[in-house]
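Preliminary data (for renewal application), zinc ion complex.
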Amino acid sequence: MTAHILKCGLAGWCLLVFPFWIAGGSAAPAARAGPSPGARLPETLRIGVLTLFQPQEITLAAGSRPTTLHLDERPVALLPGRFCRVAKDAGGIALWQGARRLATGTRLAVAAEDVTVEVSGRRTRLRRQFHGTLTVTAGEKHLQLVVTQPLEAVVAAVVSAELSPEAPPEAAGALAVVVRSYLANHVGRHAGQGFDFCDSTHCQLFFGEQWAQWEAGRETGGALSTLGRQAAAGTQGEVLRETGGELTDAYFTACCGGRTTTPAVAFGTGQASATTTGVRCQWCRAGRFFTWTRRVDRQTLARAILPELAAAEDWQLAVAGHTPDGFVTGVVASAGSRRITLPNHRFRHMVGQRLGWNLVLSNRYAIEPHGEWLVLRGQGFGHQVGLCLAGAITQAQAGRHYRDILRYYFPKSACRPPADF
Ligand SMILES: [Zn+2]
Ligand SMILES: [Zn+2]
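Predicted structure:
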């Protein structure tokens, strides 16, 4: 019932395979120091955009008013309706108009509202509009685009990217608080690359204000929804905090499949926390991914993840261990007397990268051998940590307030408005 409302599906790293219409939650965390209790929220964030596309060249198109690009300290005028190209150049970037190279430099900055960004690949073309400031520099292998904008604008954009505009507002409000908490908690996640967060499900899905994509003759697109803006505005500054005042390490997942788990179990990182233990959830029971079944050819799987076993006709794969509440902790591959054990988070990541993210959908599953096939039967969709989006939507449809929904999935955290810290 919620499938048409919940845009997300494959949590984690799925965007590589199913761009744009499937998202599904903040992905595995990097190690973090964590803000101190009561720390102020960041006012602005730097989002690396078009990070999966890795463009060598972009086109900037002016809107209906004159625009000034700043290439290092030098202003370059872009007349209404005109466009220019920005490409990597020896040691920096170059600005082109037609066959004419206008200028070269190292850093281009422009008011993001004034331009539309377009990138083209062999089969794909993307167009984006952002809010705030857009900077373009030359990374090692491709152009690096960074949008700097207020925290609340990022929250609105992420909620809009994750939920259909028809989703119930209270579910969007709950998601906004979780997204804000995540963003405040992980500032600088990509500091080495010059920004705080990337725009893929590795961090938080972010399309900006307007987006469109053409692929294989098909166009998809959308705009920042009223739902996302209202969810950010209606929960402005609210975050989840633990009893000592520290920000809760908050995540969201597409569908928990009946129970959520902890970052330590799902990601294999961090310490289990008293406030981030999982909860039982029956609100997503009617969801499309409450249970799932997938199958894979054994030899295909062996060649993809354990090529040293691919020659063995009789190799098998089994779940090596579970948590008491049924989450897989590892898998074991065996052939004759050989046994290779993989932690679950590593197994899922390897399968996802090499065979696609639509095979091992969650961290709770069983593996059954069927001749040449392995059949996986599981529950839930995504990493299953934190807010269950399918469940939040059903709770909101039942009339529950966003703070009730948050209390349900984060029973030991408090949702604090800005006045409380
Ligand atoms: Zn990222
Ligand atoms: Zn659920």
